[in-house]
Amino acid sequence: MTQDELPLPEFKLRPVDEKRVKGVQDIIEHDPLGHEKWYIHSVLAQCFLPYRDQKGTRDWHRKNGNASLAISATPIEDENGEMKVLGLPFGAKPRLFMSKIQTDAIRNQSPIIPVETSMTGMLKDLGYAVTGGKKGTLTSFKEQTSRLAACRFRIFHSQKSDAGTLSRAVNADIFKEFELWFPQDPNQQTFWPTEIKLTNDFYENLKEHAIPYDFRGFKLIQNNARAIDIFLWMTQRLHRIPHNKPLFLK
């Protein structure tokens, strides 16, 4: 038997990959419905949150092209009345949550976002299985959203000319008001605020720089922070390429 006659090895996709292949096929064959079109700020589609816990680090800075994002973790008052720093948000969940609230703000054309009264409802909305315990989705989601709420955000845009480089900074703190609940009973259901208020500065900047994307593709990779970043970066990059001027990316 020659090399060319050897049988090809069987190749079986993992269940998660089969789901992604079917999802891609659906995206190709069907345009997104209204609720499947989501939005993200263009800078957050270029400059990303940490992938892992930056233990002991309060500041995070990322630059991509002319855009930069700076995040600082600030202290909050805990359930004992003491000030503590929760740390910087990281991983997939804060990315998904950030895009969810920005999408709702754009859809409703309002900086005030009504949300479910329980975190369980929000998790189901985002496509996560709801699990409890120390390593469950409820615990990790609460931690990441609390870290987001306690962070200061600043966006920078730089522009070069013959006269030099002009850098413009925008104070882009996301939340004007965000409730953090600390139940006395650790086994008690974690409550969620009835509404989230965005700062006017961030909301106005978001309206000017929101990038639409297909949430069906995002949902297929929602547990992989790096894949999410690549997906959103490609979306915003393709969004800015004129249809009559193709660009070779390498």
- Helix and strand composition category: alpha+beta
Strand content: 15-25%
How do the strands of the widest beta sheet line up side by side? 2-3-7-8
Q: What does the main sheet amount to?
A: 4 strands, antiparallel
- Total of helices: 7
Q: What sequence of helices (H) and strands (E) makes up the elements? A: HEEEEEHEHHEEEEHEHH
The tally of beta strands, per DSSP, is: 11
Gyration radius from CA atoms, angstroms? 21 Å
**Helix content class:** 25-40%
Oligomer: single chain
Mean pLDDT: 80
Quick one: overall form?
globular
Which consecutive residue ranges, at least 5 long each, have pLDDT under 50?
none
Calculate the terminal CA-CA distance, rounded to whole Å: 41 Å
Tell me about this structure.
It is a single chain. With 250 residues, the chain is of the alpha+beta class. Helices cover 33% and strands 23% of the residues. The protein has seven helices and eleven strands. A four-stranded antiparallel β-sheet has the order 2-3-7-8. β7 (151-161) and β8 (164-171) form a beta hairpin. The longest helix is centred in the middle third of the chain and has 17 residues, at 92-108. It starts with 14 loop residues before the first helix and ends in an 11-residue tail after the last helix. The model has no long low-confidence stretch (mean pLDDT 80).
